[in-house]
Amino acid sequence: MPGVVDSIVNLGKKCVYCAMECAAIVYHWNMRMLRTRLKKLSQSSVHKDMKKAYGDLGAEVFALYKQGVTDIVNQPAVTNQLRRVERAEAKVMEAENAAQTIREDYERKKQAVKDAYRAKRAAVGGRRGPSSGGQGASEDE
Fold this sequence. Notes:
Residues 118-141 are annotated as: Disordered. By secondary structure, the chain is mainly α. The chain has three helices and no strands. The longest helix is centred in the N-terminal third of the chain and has 66 residues, at 2-67. It starts with a helix and ends with a helix. 3% of the residues are buried.
């Protein structure tokens, strides 16, 4: 009888660990979603700044074209606008890299949680009795 009680206790512990694992993964997923939403809000302003920089560059080039300037590339106003566009593009790439880092961080944390709770469930020691017949061994691998 003590063997049956131990098996039930071990099974209960494994179920609790499984529930705790799911709760931890859901928590990390919610945090990822929150951080991603905040980054998307900042990304929208960065994209707006980039579009404005492109628009200002186009307006400057068109104004010089209307004036009949042939050497548009070497004009100081155009080079300033080009630098502004490059800075805006760099900010966009930085924001996209930050979003990618959030996704990678979530996957890393999720895997760490899975590994930790897999080890805890394995440490519980739910040995299989002779009635299992070794059928469950192929499912675990």
